[in-house]
User: Fold these one by one.
Assistant:
Number 1:
Amino acid sequence: MNFFDRLHDRIRTVDSVVSVGLDPDPSRIPDHLQEHDLPRWAFNRRIIDATHEHAAVYKPNAAFYEDPDGWRALEETIAYAHGKDVPVLLDAKRADIGNTTRQYAQMLETVDAITVNPYMGRDSLQPFLADEESGVFILCRTSNPGGADLQDLTLESGEPLYERVAALADLWNENDNVGLVVGATKPDELAELRKQVPDLPFLVPGIGAQGGDAEAAVEYGLADGVGLVNSSRGIIFAGEDEGEDFASASGQAAKRLKKRLNQYRA
Ligand SMILES: O=C(O)c1cc(=O)[nH]c(=O)n1[C@@H]1O[C@H](COP(=O)(O)O)[C@@H](O)[C@H]1O
């Protein structure tokens, strides 16, 4: 089954479009877990136990796992999320020349979807796009302030670069497996992009810690009810000051966010 069909089912099952970002900054993992063999895995396991009923997906960001212990922690985390029937979207922002990107795309055997970077063009994304079962979220208009440096540049045609990216992504969506990443900090761009590519689901990060617009994230992020609104730090570190019971605050934060976003779902 195609990723977006699976996501549709998952959203219906848990009545949630929340993507729980698993970005376990080692310096913020509670003291009592620091002695664990793999503190990031010990942390994620407790977060997953507390939040899975509210999670449409888990989105681990690869940056938090790029060392030998991190790779082990990530492997355990992915398997555990799958054991709870939650799809995993790896936030890797990959892409490279052909033979290299083919290696990157092998990750899709382990996760359900991935984020990719369009900067190197279609051939750099081809092995991801060719994988009919997996979701491919292409960075379009990112949430960070520096996103404007390149993405807002106006092309000769008069359109901003990020709109060209959206048009290309629509063209590359031959297998109905493409989505866009559009930050919640850019509500006007979200609205414009939704008009431009009505059928592409969006992954919308940037609410919570980055201060983005949750209502716009839902109103424009979903295509036919399918899309994702991510919160990472706002959920996983909600119980940072609560010691050994930290995870129940994360569960409550995920539930609160689900309810808040559901107010805006059609
Ligand atoms: O691709 C992403 O998920 C992403 C794109 C973007 O434009 N902005 C953005 O914040 N993200 C990711 O979404 C997560 C946001 O984390 P919080 O700000 O803690 O909710 C991080 O993993 C970011 O790397």
Note: Residues 132 and 240 are 40 Å apart (CA to CA).
Number 2:
Amino acid sequence: MRIALIGAGSWGTAVAGLAAQEASEVRVWAHEESCAAGINTNHVNPGYLTDYTLPENVIASSDIVWALKGADGIIFAVPSMHLRSVAKAARHDIAPDTPVLCLTKGIEPHTGLLMTEVIGEEIGHPERIGALSGPNHAEEVCQGALSAAVIAAEDPHVAAFFKDVLISPAFRVYVSDDITGVEMCGAAKNIMAIICGIAAGSGLGDNTLALIMTRGLAEISRLVHARGGDPMTCMGLAGMGDLVATCTSEHSRNRMFGVAFAQGVSLEAYQERRHMVVEGAAAAMSIAELARSLDVDAPLTFALDHILWHGGSIAESLEHLTDRFPTSEFYGINE
Ligand SMILES: NC(=O)C1=CN([C@@H]2O[C@H](COP(=O)(O)OP(=O)(O)OC[C@H]3O[C@@H](n4cnc5c(N)ncnc54)[C@H](O)[C@@H]3O)[C@@H](O)[C@H]2O)C=CC1
Ligand SMILES: O=C(CO)COP(=O)(O)O
């Protein structure tokens, strides 16, 4: 069996290693030629996860046609801002019945589309496209630390196919049919992680972090419900699981960016320094747009959008948030 892994950042690299346990060959497409060369020569990606040695059946190229050739399954792991252009470039080299899995976490700005919907618009046959999400930092998964994820797909055969490819004693894979809920949770939790980072970087304590995570989860549940997903998904790996991991972990780019931002580092400077995507920044904008269009009350998302993209101050946003009159804890989720 041959798997194509489109994207050689941290997560694509770690998941290539997982897939290589089941597949006879994993072909990785890397945006940077140097990443492909390092994987082929030393079995190490020189750009990401540099302490991790990939299995020898993982090979790479910056030629996407080569990567897709003869693939029995295709996994997309590119940042959200590049997903549409990469899927467009791949469209003529993907057979209509090849199962596809999306690892990207985000919502497309202006369209409000989920990442699987973006891929579906470009390559067609959206029913064969699933999404994987959960509390999975690449740095831990590649070292075999016990982790779990959920794969959501409309077609259960697609979820079962990728579950068989990726599951191992150290990487537990559950399945779901709530693709909307799983993808909304994966995109929105990054916003809460940045806010937790800002709070921690501003000297606020553990009570505040727990407050942000809990009210964040209620906000995510309202968004999931309004977008047509199942709020129960928020209790699972893609919801609470990933929220806890990303809001508390030292590996979280989103949380660490929030800490740095509170100390005066700009988004551009942070991304330039780390060469890593901070998906929650883009998600603050795209999910704020989506929430307004769906008439969802999303105060934490609106606050981060205001701070990052409209010049709002942290102090002013905190004052605005704490001025709100608390109502029923779970409003907007059941009705
Ligand atoms: N890192 C992690 O532990 C996890 C990441 N994810 C998600 O996976 C997705 C990919 O993130 P990472 O692998 O962490 O990325 P990363 O931040 O480690 O690396 C950035 C990636 O962007 C690529 N890139 C840069 N410019 C590009 C362009 N013009 N066109 C196409 N690709 C370009 C780079 O080649 C590299 O693959 C994101 O949506 C992220 O939220 C999900 C779960 C875990
Ligand atoms: O989605 C991720 C982990 O599940 C990666 O995002 P963070 O690095 O911000 O946690």
Note: The chain has a mean pLDDT of 97.
